[in-house]
């Protein structure tokens, strides 16, 4: 199809009104525009969030509220979100980071979408605007099922992890700017030398980011040793549904998962 109109509403509510007539939401365009340019976009209208006032970042009382149209560069510039910089650097070049948005990354197919993996580990909450007003939804639900027709993710809220509790590792073909073979993100708190609580999210090993629930259960109450983490990584194979692509085979992704889960905690 050929794009016949690009709407640039000046508020989230105006964007929702525009979507009532159909079309796709566009954040920075790094995913949508390649589809448009190749003729693969099944729509004739786009609704850009560029001027909808959704590009801010606010941090208050240990909670970050990140606008859906905030770019990776904007996120990386905030000192309170410095823990995300290693992840952002692995995703794309500075040029792409100046355009790619937080909200858009929620809807990127794996093996891309590493920021979405981080948000899943952080147990983020999405604020969604729709014809019936605004609602909150766990990021896990948005990643699994998307949003309803006519709805727009307007912000993401995350509780900032305590110092020493954030872990991130990504295996890829190049050192930077490459799709994931395996991505691991985690918020894990230890107490008395053993794991008190943990959330582990994985990317590159299923069609969407997934929680490594089996690994989480195995780690609780145990120390973060080489042996225990290897066991947890092997258990995490039960949580994934790997695929073949140009970067790695499904077999390889499953094979190296325990190694990279361990490296997330013990570089």
Please describe what this structure looks like.
The protein has 267 residues and is of the alpha+beta class. The protein folds into three domains: 5-48, Uridine Diphospho-n-acetylenolpyruvylglucosamine Reductase, domain 2, CATH 3.30.43; 57-159, Uridine Diphospho-n-acetylenolpyruvylglucosamine Reductase, domain 3, CATH 3.30.465.10; 166-265, CO dehydrogenase flavoprotein, C-terminal domain (Enolase-like, domain 1), CATH 3.30.390. It is 32% helix and 26% strand. It contains eleven helices and twelve strands. The strands form three sheets. It has a five-stranded antiparallel β-sheet with strand order 4-5-8-6-7. It has a four-stranded antiparallel β-sheet with strand order 9-10-11-12. A hairpin with a 6-residue loop joins strand 11 (194-203) and strand 12. It is globular, with a radius of gyration of 19 Å. The mean pLDDT is 95.
Q: Quick check: average pLDDT? A: 95
Order of helices and strands: EHEHEEEHHHHHEEHEEEEEHHH
Give me the number of helical elements.
Answer: 11
Instruction: Provide the helix percentage.
Output: 25-40%
Largest sheet, strands/sense/barrel: 5 strands, antiparallel
Helix/strand class: alpha+beta
CATH architecture annotation of the largest domain: 2-Layer Sandwich
- Spatial gap, N to C terminus: 47 Å
- Low-confidence segments, ≥5 residues, pLDDT <50? none
The strand line-up of the biggest sheet is 4-5-8-6-7
Radius of gyration from the alpha-carbon trace, in angstroms: 19 Å
CATH level-3 fold name of the largest domain: Uridine Diphospho-n-acetylenolpyruvylglucosamine Reductase, domain 3
Compute the number of structural domains.
Answer: 3
| Oligomer state of the chains in this structure | single chain
What is the name of the CATH class of the largest domain? Answer: Alpha Beta
Fraction of residues in β-strands: 25-35%
């Amino acid at each position: 199809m050929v794009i016949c109109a690009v709407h640039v509403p000046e508020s989230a509510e105006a964007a929702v009104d525009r979507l009532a007539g159909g079309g796709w939401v566009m954040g920075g365009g790094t995913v949508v525009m390649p589809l448009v340019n190749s003729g693969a976009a099944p729509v004739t209208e786009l609704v850009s969030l560029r001027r909808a006032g959704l590009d801010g970042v606010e941090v208050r009382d240990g909670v970050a509220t990140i606008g859906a149209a905030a770019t990776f560069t904007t996120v990386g510039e905030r000192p309170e979100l410095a823990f995300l910089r290693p992840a952002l650097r692995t995703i794309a070049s500075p040029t792409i980071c100046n355009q790619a948005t937080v909200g858009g990354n929620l809807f990127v197919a794996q093996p891309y979408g590493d920021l979405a993996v981080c948000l899943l580990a952080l147990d983020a909450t999405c604020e969604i605007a729709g014809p019936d007003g605004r609602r909150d939804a766990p990021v896990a639900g948005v990643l699994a099922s998307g949003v309803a027709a006519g709805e727009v993710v307007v912000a993401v809220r995350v509780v900032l992890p305590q110092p020493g509790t954030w872990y991130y590792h990504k295996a890829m073909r190049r050192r930077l700017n490459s799709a994931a073979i395996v991505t691991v993100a985690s918020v894990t708190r230890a107490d008395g030398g053993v794991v008190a609580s943990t959330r582990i999210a994985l990317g590159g090993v299923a069609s969407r980011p997934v929680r490594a629930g089996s690994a989480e259960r195995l780690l609780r109450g145990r120390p973060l040793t080489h042996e225990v983490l290897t066991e947890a990584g092997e258990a995490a194979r039960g949580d994934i549904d790997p695929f073949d692509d140009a970067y790695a085979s499904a077999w390889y992704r499953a094979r190296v998962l325990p190694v990279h889960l361990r490296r997330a905690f013990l570089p």
